[in-house]
Write a structure and sequence with these properties.
Radius of gyration: 20 Å
Structural class: alpha/beta
Shape: globular
Distance between the termini: 20 Å
Strand order of the largest sheet: 7-6-5-4-3-2-1-8-9-10
Strand content: 5-15%
Helix content: 25-40%
Number of helices: 14
Largest sheet: 10 strands, mixed
């Protein structure tokens, strides 16, 4: 059956990408990002086995005043959404104040959290700040989740956090699960548990070769990948399932699994502000020279956005990757995820 929503989104995306390039040629500046992520800290109260944010550490996090000045820049640029990730964002005692400030500037706001510190009081404070979206991690039923997160209270706290967010009326509450060799067999049971606690939005991501997962290979097999995609197809009626952008195209299964088509949005509709002000494409990209676009302590964000991100906008992979160069699916995949390329697991044709 034809997925009309997916078909229309595909047309909208193609139109936007064409307009993005044409606008620059005509006006000599790019549209602003619509979504800015703030990698607010690498401090965390857990030590998850698949965590990609564990490698770098920082002694000089952006201060509250620096972040608020940055929010002013983002709002002036016309960005629509500002979200915080980490590390664990709620370890920053200024998080509620910063989210409230961003909301006051007219932007939608959100955070991604492990839920451990998100008690009823904190949920109410976040609701009052104007926050629109909270993503809470849950990687399995109690034994599996606690094993992955290395904490015996992490599961119960995450479940409680989901309930608190529902109770205070947070507009969008999403549960996020990283699929790995540790929880693959547990996912069907987890789905039942999520339904029991009233989860409507479920983000499913596949483990990435960064952080702890760089040395502890926790990726699932090709056969398991196919089976997981089949599982998602079957369960789309139970949940709004969002498949992570690290597999931006799923071959012929894409329109059967996603409600809307997606792509790697780095440098087109999104960017990431790092812990110490370094700008890169997304939070999963390691904070290294390869992915560095500038630093907001040296330049303003508008200047970095206009002068940086060239390899993402120029379709560089179409020229440099021989497999991409001859691929008929380029317009749908656009070379896949840059982070998955770090260990050569970016091409969906290698899986299905």
């Amino acid at each position: 059956m034809l997925n009309l929503e997916y078909t229309y989104s595909s047309l909208r995306l193609a139109t936007y990408l064409k307009s993005f390039a044409q606008h620059y040629r005509k006006h000599n500046y790019y549209y602003p990002p619509s979504y800015v992520l703030w990698d607010c800290t690498r401090r965390c109260n857990l030590a998850c086995r698949h965590c990609g944010a564990s490698k770098e550490s920082y002694a000089d996090e952006l201060s509250e005043s620096e972040v608020k000045a940055l929010v002013d820049q983002i709002a002036k640029m016309g960005c629509r959404f500002f979200a915080a990730t980490g590390g664990e964002p709620l370890l920053r005692e200024d998080m509620v104040r910063i989210m409230a400030y961003a909301s006051e500037q007219g932007m939608g706001t959100g955070i991604a959290t492990n839920g451990y510190l998100l008690d009823e009081k904190k949920a109410a404070e976040l609701k009052q700040s104007g926050i629109k979206s909270i993503q809470i991690s849950l990687d399995g039923t109690e034994e599996i989740h606690n094993f992955i997160r290395r904490n015996e209270q992490s599961y119960q706290n995450a479940i409680a956090a989901i309930r608190h967010c529902h109770n205070v009326g947070i507009y969008m509450v999403t549960t996020a699960t990283v699929i790995s060799k540790y929880n693959y067999d547990n996912i069907p049971i987890l789905a039942d548990r999520l339904a029991e606690v009233g989860v409507k939005h479920w983000k499913v991501m596949f483990a990435m070769p960064i952080g702890r997962a760089e040395t502890d290979d926790c990726a699932i097999s090709k056969t398991q990948m196919k089976q997981m995609l089949d599982f998602i197809k079957v369960n789309r009626k139970r949940f709004h399932i969002i498949v992570g952008e690290n597999l931006p195209w799923l071959g012929k299964a894409d329109s059967k699994i996603r409600q809307e088509c997606t792509f790697c949005p780095v440098g087109i509709t999104t960017c990431c502000i790092g812990v110490n002000g370094n700008i890169r494409g997304c939070p999963e990209m390691p904070d290294t020279d390869e992915f560095l676009e500038g630093n907001i302590r040296d330049q303003n964000l508008w200047e970095i956005w206009q002068k940086g991100f060239r390899k993402y906008r120029s379709a560089e992979l179409r020229q440099t990757d021989t497999k991409c160069k001859s691929c008929s699916a380029w317009s749908k995949c656009r070379g896949g995820c840059w982070v998955m390329r770090l260990n050569g697991t970016h091409c969906i044709k290698d899986y299905i």
